[in-house]
Amino acid sequence: MKSTFLLLLLSQTNFSVSISFFSNTNTLALHSQFLQARWDSDLCYAFYGVDGTTCSILTYLSEREDFCPPHPGRNHSAPPWHQQPHTHKEKAEVRTTLRPLYEVFGGIQGPAGRFIRSRVERLSTCWIKAGHRIRENTTKTTSLQKRVLLYPGVLSGSAGQRFGAMVDQGGPLGELVQWADLSASLFILGHNLTFTTSQNHLHSVIGAAPGKGSCPIQMPLPFDLIYTDYHGLAHLQGAMGLAFNHYQ
Questions:
Q1: Where's the Glycosyltransferase family 18 catalytic domain (predicted)?
Q2: 52 conformational bin, left if phi > 0, alpha if psi -120 to 50, beta if neither
Q3: CB 111 within 8 A of CB 197
C-alpha cells in the first residue's frame, strides 16, 4: 500500500525513481497529504514554490526537506541546511580594545541593553588588561575565529519589555551580568560576534523563510556557536522548522 501511493505520486509528475532506494514511504505519504490540504497554511510553502500541485509538493519535499528522493536531472544533492557553510579561516587575534564591541551592542534597546553595555564599559580596563596578558603569554595564534551568535531571548518582544521594567526597579541583574561578561570575553579572545535581542533580526541572520516557521531555513547556519536561553531556544525552534532537529 505504501509503495503504491509513492508510485502513483511519482507517475503523476514524471519522476523516475526506484523506490528500492527510499523506504520511508509512509512519512512521504503523510507529508504529501498534509501539504495537499494545508499548503496555504504558512507563507513559507509558497515562498519555496509550493502551489498545491503534486509536482511542486514533491519538489519541495525533495529539495527543501528530506522526505523524498531528488528529482532526476536537477542539480541537487541535499537540502541547503544539510550542507556545510563556507569555511571561515580568519585567525582569532586577541584584542586590546572594546570599541568595536559597543557597535555590536548598537541594536540593543531599553534598560537591559543599557545595563549590559554599561557593565562592559565599567570593566573595560580589566578586560583590556586581560587581553594584553594573553598576548604576552601567547607566542603564536593557532585557533580559528569563531562566528558566534548571542541571542538572549528573554530580552525579545513583550517579554523583554517586562524584563526591562524589572531592571529599572533593581530586578534580576545576574542574567544580564552573564551576557555582558560572555560578550566581552569572547570579543577579547578575537571572535566574530553577532548580538541581537530582536526576533526579526534573528530570523534574518539565520536565513528563516517568511511565515510561521513551518519550513526549514534557506541556508546552512552561518554560525559556529550559538548562545541563547530557554526563550531563545523556543524562538529558534519556531523559526527553523525541520532544520532545528538537524542542528540540535
A1: 44-248
A2: left
A3: no
Measured distance CA(51)–CA(56) in Å, rounded: 6
Strand order in the sheet with 147-151: 192-195, 147-151, 225-228
In a domain, 68, yes or no: yes
SS3 content of the chain, % helix, strand, coil (to 5): 55, 5, 40
- The yes-or-no verdict on residue 190 having pLDDT over 70 is yes
pLDDT tens digit sequence for 137-166? 877 666 889 999 999 999 998 888 888 788
Half-sphere exposure of residue 142: CA atoms within 13 angstroms, side-chain side: 3
| Contact yes or no for 153/234 (Cβ under 8 A) | yes
Positive or negative, the CA dihedral 13, 19, 24, 29 is positive
- Rounded to the nearest angstrom, the gap between the alpha carbon of residue 116 and the centroid of all alpha carbons in its chain is 23
Predicted local distance difference test score (pLDDT) of residue 75: 58
pTM: 0.82
Instruction: Give the chain's domain count.
Output: 2
Same domain? For 125 and 68 the reply is no
Alpha helices, DSSP H only, in 105-173? Answer: 110-122, 124-137, 157-168
Q: What digits encode the pLDDT tens for the residues 193-215?
A: 999 999 999 999 999 999 999 99
In order of 31, 90, 115, 188, 228, the CA distances from 145 in angstroms are: 40, 6, 27, 11, 19
Q: Which grid coordinates are listed for 117? A: 553595555
Whether residue 37 has pLDDT greater than 60: yes
**Are 120 and 226 within one domain?**
yes
Report the pLDDT value the prediction gives residue 12, as an integer from 0 to 100. 39
Q: Which of 22, 42, 77 is the last residue of a domain?
A: 77
Longest dimension (CA), the chain: 70
